[in-house]
Amino acid sequence: MQTAATLKGYRREVSQALANDFLRQAMDNFAVAYRTSRANAFAGMDVERLVAGVAEAKDRALTRLDELYAIFKSRAETMGIRVHLAENAEAANRIVAAIARENRVRTVIKSKSMTAEETLLNHHLEAEGLTVTETDLGEWIIQLRHEGPSHMVMPAIHLSRHQVADLFTQVTGKEQDAEIQRLVKVARRELRRRFVEADMGISGANFAIAATGTIGLVTNEGNARLVTTLPRVHVALVGLDKLVPDLDTALQILRVLPRNATGQAITSYVTWITGPAEYAGAEATAKQMHIVFLDNGRRALARDPIFSQVLRCVRCGACANVCPVYRMVGGHQYGHIYIGAIGLIVTYFFHGRDKARNLVQNCINCGACQAVCAAGIDLPRLIKEVHARIQDEEGHPVESVMLSLVLKNRRLFHTLLRSAQIAQKPVTDQTRYLRHLPHIFFRQHDFRALPAIAEEPFRDQWPRIAPKVPAPRLKVALFAGCVQDFVYPEQLIAGVRLLAAHGIAVAFPMGQSCCGLPVAMMGEKKAALAVARQNVEAIDPQRYDHIVTLCASCASHLTHAYPRLLGDERRLGPAARDFAQKVLPLSVLLNDRVGLDQSLFPETAATAATTYHAPCHLCRGLGVHDAPKELLRQAGCRFAPAAEEETCCGFGGTYSAKFPEISAEILARKLADAQRTGAETLVTECPGCVMQLRGGARRQGLDLSVAHLAEALAARMKARG
Amino acid sequence: MNSTNDSDGREAARRFQQAAEKVSAVVRSMATLEEALAYTLDLCERKQACELLAAGCAEPLSAGAEALCDGKQAKTMAAPNLPPETRERFGGLCHPLGIRLIAGSLRDHLAGIDVGLTLADYGIAETGTLVLDSSSEAVRLATMVSEVHVALLPLSRIRESAAALSAELSGFMQTPSNYLAFITGASRTADIERVLAIGVHGPLELHILLLEDR
Lengths: 721, 214
Prior knowledge:
The complex is a heterodimer of chains A (721) and B (214).
Chain A: H1 7-18, H2 21-41, H3 47-63, H4 65-78, E1 82-86, H5 89-102, E2 107-110, H6 114-119, H7 121-127, E3 131-134, H8 137-144, H9 161-172, H10 180-197, E4 200-203, E5 207-209, E6 214-219, H11 223-229, E7 233-239, E8 243-244, H12 247-262, E9 269-274, E10 288-294, H13 298-303, H14 318-321, H15 324-329, H16 340-351, H17 353-356, H18 368-372, H19 379-394, H20 398-408, H21 410-423, H22 425-428, H23 458-465, E11 474-479, H24 482-486, H25 489-501, E12 504-507, H26 517-521, H27 525-538, E13 546-549, H28 552-566, H29 573-582, E14 583-585, H30 586-594, E15 609-612, H31 616-619, H32 627-634, E16 638-639, H33 655-658, H34 660-676, E17 681-684, H35 687-699, E18 705-708, H36 709-716
Parallel strand pairs in A: 1-10, 2-3, 2-4, 4-7, 5-8, 7-10, 11-12, 11-13, 13-14, 15-16, 15-17, 17-18
Antiparallel strand pairs in A: 5-6, 6-9
Helix pairs in contact in A: 2-12, 3-12, 9-10, 16-19, 20-27, 25-36, 27-28, 28-29, 30-32, 34-35
Chain B: H1 3-22, E1 26-30, H2 33-46, H3 52-55, H4 63-67, E2 76-78, H5 84-94, E3 100-102, E4 113-119, E5 122-124, E6 129-133, H6 137-145, E7 146-154, E8 158-159, H7 166-173, E9 178-183, E10 188-189, E11 197-198, E12 205-211
Parallel strand pairs in B: 1-12, 2-3, 2-4, 4-7, 5-8, 7-12
Antiparallel strand pairs in B: 5-6, 6-9, 10-11
C-alpha cells in the first residue's frame, strides 16, 4: 500500500524496495515464467479476438449499468437474496456491519475480495468488535502481517518461505520449517478450525449475472466454497462493474480471465450461486444471503467518455505481471490498494488524488500492460490522462510548465538547444559525452553516460547533405524528432543515405519540431496539442507518400496521439488523420514497402554477431516485431537473439530523469541479456533507447557497441563505386 | 446410436482426459458401475486413516487445530448424491471393510472425510472440468472436506466447452438456491513463492471415473 505524501518520500520508499534482493529475484522469475505460461494457455486461440470480445461485452454492459443492476436486484430477490447498494466504501462497510449485528455474528471468515480491500472492510468490522479471518492463503498471510496485497491475484508474492515460516511459528506457537508444502498444510489445518467456528462468510464476486441473479466466483484454493457454505450468513461484496447481462457474457470473460491471470485454462473452482443455498447447520433454520453492490464512483465512471473503459477490468492482474517498473519495485510501491497499471488509474477514482499523485508519475509508458490487458484497456494513455487531470486540479510543476512554454515556441526551443551545446563545453571535455553532470541533474543519473548535444544539428547540415535522387520511386518527408536532430544527427544522415540508395527522395520540412511526447508524458496536454499543430502545419501529408521517422517513440506518438488530439478539429483534423496514416518507421518502409536492395551489401556475412533490442513504441506501439531483424539478416549481419528482446530498456524519456534508480535497474537487466548473446553490436531503432543503452554500456565499460538500425545498415553498405 | 456419434464421444472423452490430467487429476475409464465402486473402495482401503503428511496432522499445530484430529477415527466415505439403490449397494461393500459410508450430516465430519464419491452432472472437454450441481450442502462438503474426491462422469455427459453447455447451465440457474460448481483438478495454491501446492483447503486428490453409459 503506497501512502507516501511527497514524490521525494515515494522515491525513498522505492529505493528501499530496489534494495530488497529477494523481491528482485522473485519478481524476475515471475516476469519470465508468466510470459511462457500465458502463451501456453492461449496456444491455438485468437487472443486478440477474445480480448476484443471482452472489451465489447463489458462496454455494452457499462452503458446499461443501472438497468442491469435493476434486473439483477429483482431477479436475485425472487431467489431469496437480499440486495443492497452502497454509495461509497463507508456505506458498504456499514451495511455489512449492520448485517453482522442483526445476526449476532461474532466471527467472520472471508475469501479474497479486492472490493473488500478497497473499502478496508476488515478494519471496519474489527473496530466493531468482530473477529475477521482471511482464508485465502496469501490474504491470510498478509492479514497476519498487517500488510496490504502486493499483487491482485498473488497478494503475498513479495514474501519468502522463510518469512512465512517465521510468521506461522508465531501463529501456532510451534517451530515451523521453511518448507512450502508443509506450510500450506499448516494453513489448511489452522484455517479449517476458523471455518467451523464462523458465523458469517464474506466473499467477493467475479461476475454478477443480471438475467438469473447469479454470482460467479473464480478461485483456486476452494476457500470461497467453504466461506459461502459453512457459516449461516453469506455476504458478497461486489463492485457494480461486475454486472454482466447473462451467463454467456460471463463464460466469454471466463475464457480469458484465468488464462491471462495465471496461465491456467480455468481455475480449480468456478462457483455459481443463485440464492441462499441449503444450510444444515445447527444455529439457524435457513441460510441468509446478501449481496452488497459497491458504487464508490463506478456509476459516474461508467458515464465518463474517456475513463469508462477502466471498468472493463476483470482483475486478472496481468498489467502488473508484465510491467517493468512493478517488476523492479513490487506491488507495495506500485499501487495504493489496486496494484499495477490499472491500480495507478483507479486509485485516483476510488481513493482520491492524494493517493494517486505520486503513483501516476511512475509509468515508463512502455505499453506492455496494454498489450496484455484481458479487456484491451488503453492503460498507458489513461495513466497520462489521470496525471494531466491531477495537474490541472493542483497546478503544474515548474519544470513541466517551463518545458511546455519552450516547446510551444519552436524557435525558442531550438535556440535553447543550440546555446546548451555551447554551455555544455566545460563538461564534455572534447568527447561526445557529458563527462560529469551539471548539478541541476540528480546525482543518481550517473548510471549511464549522457551524450552531449551535437555541434551541428541535423537541420543545419541538411542543406549541405540533402541527396539528389533522380526519378524517385517514392517521395517521403523525414520527421527527425529532437533527439536525433540535436544529439544524434549521424543516425539521420545514415538513414537518408539508405533511403537515397533505394531511390527514395527525402524532404526535410524545417518547420517541424518535437513530436510532443515528452510533454504528454508530463501531463501537459495543452503543450502536446500545440506542438502537434505545428508539425501538421509544417509537413503537408498530401505532398508525400510517407512520413518517415527513425524514432520509434515519435512514430508511435504521431500515429496514435495526433488523430486523437487534432482529429476533431475543423481546420487541421483531416490533415492530422492523413499525417498519422502516412507515418512509417524506417524499418517498415525498407523491409515491408520497398524491400532491401541486397546488392548494396557485401555478399560475405559479418563475423561478429549482432543482437537487437525492440523499442517499446515500435514492437507494442506499432506492432513491428520482425522488420528490423529481417533487415539486419538481409544485410548480412549474423543475428543472435537476446532474451526478453521486447522488454523495456528503462529509458522512457523524462521517466529516467524522474526515477533514475528504477531506470538503472531495468537497464542493467537489458544489458546483461544483450551480453549473454556474445554479440559485439546491439542494434535498436529508437534514439532514446540508443541513449540509454549506449550510455549504460559505456558507464559499465562493456565491450558492446550500440547502434541505431540506420547506422548498422549504413555501415554494412558497400562504398559507392 | 450411430457410429459417428460414438467416435465423437470417444474424441471428447480423450480431450477431457488430456485436459484433466494436465491439472493432475487421475482419470480412469470404467466399463461398469461395479468397477467404479470397486476402484473407489480400493482407493479408500489403501489410504491412511488420517492422511498424515498431506492433511497436516503431522505438522506442529496450535492446540485448537490439533484437536480436530481427535474427531476423526474410523475411515469414512461420503456419497451424498448417488442414487439410493447404488448407495445401498456401495454401503454393503464398505461395511465388511470397516469403512463407514455416510450420505448426510457431513457437518459432523469437518475434520475430514477420507473419500467423497459424487456423480457429476457434466464434463467440459476443453478444460477437463466437472460440472456438479452442489445445491445440496452434503455435496458441497463432500467435494471440499474429503481428502480424496472421486467423481463419476458418464461419458454421454461430456460436452466440448462451457459455451456448448450454456443452456443446461442456465437451466440450473433458474432454480432457487442453486449452487453450481465447476471443478477442475484438486484444490491448489501458489501463494508462497509461486510454488504449486495441492490441497490447500479442499481435496488433495481428484479422481475422475469415466463411466461407459452408451
